[in-house]
Amino acid sequence: MGSIGVMSYGIHAQQCANILKSGVHRGSCRSLHITGRYAAKEYYDVVVVGGGAAGITMSSRMKRKVGAGNVAVIEPSEKHYYQPMWTLVGGGAKQLASSERSTSSLIPSGVKWIKSEVKGFDPDKNSIRIDDDKEISYKYLIIALGIKLQFEKVKGLPEGFQYPKIGSNYSVKYVEKTWKALQDFKKGNAIFTFPNTPVKCAGAPQKIMYLSEAYLRKTGKRSDANIIFNTSLGVIFGVKKYADALLDIIRERNIQVNYRHNLIEVRADKQEAVFENLDKPGETKVYQYEMLHVTPPMGPPDVLVNSPVADAGGWVDVSKDTLQHKKYPNVFGIGDCTNLPTSKTAAAIAAQSAVLDKTISLVMKNENPTSKYDGYTSCPLVTGYSKVILAEFDYSQQPLETFPIDQGKERRSMYHMKADMMPFLYWNLLLKGYWGGPAPYRKLMHLGFK
Description:
With 450 residues, the protein is of the alpha/beta class. The chain has helices spanning 13-22, 26-30, 53-66, 86-90, 103-106, 175-183, 204-218, 240-252, 346-364, 412-430, 439-445, and strands at residues 41-49, 71-74, 79-81, 100-102, 112-114, 118-122, 127-130, 135-143, 148-149, 166-167, 188-194, 225-231, 256-259, 261-267, 272-277, 284-288, 291-293, 298-299, 331-333, 377-384, 387-393. It contains eleven helices and 21 strands. Strands 1, 2, 5, 6, 7, 8 and 19 form a seven-stranded mixed sheet that branches. The chain has a five-stranded parallel sheet with strand order 10-17-11-12-13, with helices on one face. Helix 3 runs parallel beside helix 9. The longest helix is centred in the C-terminal third of the chain and has 19 residues, at 346-364.
């Protein structure tokens, strides 16, 4: 369908906007390209902001709900990464290339990919602003913008990454540097950090620590290494069952844990890391390192901060049960960018997508959402090159386990699930909108007893 110069037909841009809002003759206005001094405006039944795990998943589900041509995904990046694999990339067990696909190959056919950044939200007018001040209008909006890495909040970063001995599994730029630092380790402190902010995959900062310890043991360097975990938290893990199991491993492997220690500066030229003691304001300690793995501070994407769809902290303000926005009933949030009080993981996104799908179905029928998200999330805690503790839990920080075995124990089977089965499930089921988490299978696995 060709584009029409609106001004040549004498239609004012605002008139078109009114037509779009009314829902009449939507098809004729959807592909309008407005020339002259008016910005172009497009309309879709569903607009998904963000092309990460949550965004692609929901675009697949929404296409089946409202049909091809009626859904758009706004995402500037040409590459999409399966980020849970980066733990294994940093530990030398997987190649970075195997975590990458092109965004174009993942956008469902019939869904419009708008390759742009979102510049602002105007939920009162059912529109968002993108590059070149272009406006996109919607009937329903799903915000899936993820979380922002904030290396710059640590003095000396990100410029410190130009030096050796330092890496981060959280960034495509620095994950391979983690593996290089591990291979080049000779003697001294191997330090792993956890920041004083929300993070995605809260287990990942220590997963690489266990892999590094195992690698150093395998290569005969363990006796020359001090493994140190400096965490801003007051506990090793938020769920007691798994925390107890991890503490046993930490004792067995002679790992030093310093709680309430937050990284504030990296002096990469001197191989020094500076930590503040959160329980004693103003007190700092300098550590020399031979290897440093940085988990960066994280926060909401800039476009959400102070926006009408966000809470005071900058996170999308949604109901923890339905994922519907608390103020705007045709706006929804999913994944890391929301204020849902659960861990930010791909497993959480899977469970949320199933609930959100049902929520939107009912809202589209002018009915009240009834399906409730229980806060399910999962963290495969990699504790070695063939060992995983599969942590699964809910809002109440209580185990919500799928398998009829004790998941608080290290298991080789769970490692293979993490390394081999989960990537397959991600690419072939989750992103295509066919995987909503293990809830339907949990009762089956426990023979109806759970």
